[in-house]
Amino acid sequence: MFIRELKNRSGSISIQIISKVKGRYKVVKTMGSATMLQEIEILKQLARQEIKNIEEKNQLALFESKSDKLVEQVFETLQNSSIRTVGPELIFGRIFDHIGFNQVREEMFRHLVIARLAYPLSKLKTAEYLYRYQGISLDIDAIYRFLDKLNSKLKPQVEQIAFEHTKRVLQGKISVVFYDMTTLYFEASDEDDLRKTGFSKDGKHQNPQIFLGLLVALGGYAIGYDIYEGNTYEGHTLIPFIEKISKKFNLDKPVIIADSGLLSKANIAALEEKGYEYILGARIKNEPEDIKSKILAQQYADGTTISIEKPGGKRLIVSYSGKRAAKDAYNRQRGLKRLEKRIRTGKLTKSNINNRGYNKYLKLEGEVSVEIDYDKFDRDKQWDGLKGYVTNTQLGGKQVIENYQNLWHIEKAFRMSKTDLRIRPIYHHLRKRIEAHICISFAAYAVYKELERVLYLEKSPLSLKKSSRDNPQCLPGNIPTSRFKTYQKQASENG
User: Does residue 275 sit within a domain?
Assistant: First the structure.
């Protein structure tokens, strides 16, 4: 390689790095152009340094190429059964045992849970992963036969083990539980007795789906779960689920915390009839006029909390947050701009009128004229920053809010399940296999959550993903911290 000075039409000089390959010249890099002699010399100096860097990289690449060939020769002499990925079994396997899942005397269950954590894809890909990286040969038909019996045989035991572990973590105190539901959709268009179309929280209303109900304790530690048909109304699941879990685990009437989606007169009446205390998200704009008047009559500052008595010993706790007010105002303005744009472009017609989202600001003029009700938009400003909670507990307003705010743990549980554990897409269509898939994912979530807890206690700077992939340290069961030599290929090579 050499440096060339190229005179431009403008009178400036361009400094280029040129290489010669098979008798042909090629511009490797243009360092820049200048007119002053001093600036040209600076560009030449930069070019010399760049040539030096390129030559060093080429030498390193040549060395690495030779090293790669040696590694390939070593791997060619090894069989799949001789290659091991130590990390997943070392990390997740120890936590799996620590929680107590080794009480499940099914080796297939262990393999599928750890594979779900290390390589969360289809069961066919799981079988390939286990063979390539663990030297474990599993027939795919054997996996499916195991799934067919998994849910009916092992679900009660898996839930019991997870519950006992949660009790140990919380030192036997489960006085508050959090319940929520999410939807899991299927790419297939066919419905059956489980997979049905319904209201989708993922926005996939045209796809058949199932509902997954999850109960966790403080901190997001797993207690139990259940599966429902895709067209189930989530408000009808709360009481049967709580009663079943309470009876199974002998829970002593914990405080039930759930979001406003489960707020209904029927649910509240049923909870009170069975002696449960609760904290539920409230829809304050749907309250009777006299209560709304009391809410709006209050002067609010950041952190203000008020309590309004309701019939039947219930209270409505309302809090104000300046940060929430700013967010509410921003969202209203953004929604208004979208409506204005759709009206200008003619994409909003009479058929679009409904009371969902920011469409509530629209009104009809004549038969076809659609306008924005700016008065209604302005009136909504008075609700910015306000959030309500309905409770029958004796807790103070701030305690009610603090307990409810822990609901984010269950939202995080769903997020971890859908992203880190890739609980979806679900490739099964038989009910028993779908249920088995959820059972494996539930156990994997308990393991993942315990790893998160240990990293927090040890004040580790490592993320969950990095610690589980590369860094065995400070884990339960006296896991050693020494380094391990492994022959390991990246699982990403296989998808």
Answer: no
